[in-house]
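Reviewer comment 2.1 asked that we show a complete input and output for one of the modelled complexes. We chose the magnesium ion case, as it is the one discussed in the main text.
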Amino acid sequence: MRQKESIESIATVLFRAEKEAFEVDKFVDLYPELDADMAYRIQERLIALKCKAEAAKVTGWKLGLTSQAKQQMMGVHEPVYGVLLDSMRLSEGNPVTLAPFIHPKIEPEIAFVFHRELKGPGVSVPEVLAATACVMPALEIIDSRYRNFSFTLADVIADNASSSRYLLGEVHVKPDEIDMRLSGMVFQKNGKVIATSTGASVMGHPARAIAWMANKLAESGQSIRPGEIVLSGALCEATSIAAGDTVTVSIDGMGSVTVVFTN
Ligand code: OOG
Ligand code: MG
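Response of the prediction step:
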């Protein structure tokens, strides 16, 4: 009983923190029973609250902390997943106001779109690739609701893996047209290269992150459904953003995506 109440109150605080753009302290200190399983239940409640308030629909999933760079930066040792809603998607070409965010950062990812259901357990990399309609470069804006982006694995899961917004590139590549491990990535802010990486930085192959998630989702009877979008997790560390910044990710064979930020 107490756990159900804790789930409800943590989900409500995280929902309000995003809506009203305030920071909260991580919850593990207050709720010692908060583990990854409980955190995914909080995430489900949080998504239900957001869907209701924003009349939003689930459009896919995001992976987080799938590269060593990100795991080290955040001090965790395994990936996490979160839910994507239609209300989180931005389109390229429109300047993005920083007004709704707390302390946003941006990171380059590879997005997968599925034409077939992917249901674990036992999903492998070739199965992920066979179920993939296309891949494209993506930029994810993350905005942890926790003070200074300071959280444990359970905290970040509860907070829907710091999700905020995302943009997709327009070039759609079939997965058998490229070797995604070798896809070179250039991440630029205001014309300057701030990081370079390759697809292999995501768990050796971005599709391995997707397989991990499909198998993890199976534990709660869920799957990746046809038409859904999945973000692979960042290929390098996230960078902070300020008004006036222009950020671009370019990936070999996949084109690029650019976003401009305003006040
Ligand atoms: C957690 C979200 C991580 C990624 O791509 O690794 C994430 C965070 O860093 O706040 O979205
Ligand atoms: Mg991300």
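The chain has a mean pLDDT of 97. We note this here for comparison with the apo prediction described in Section 3.2.
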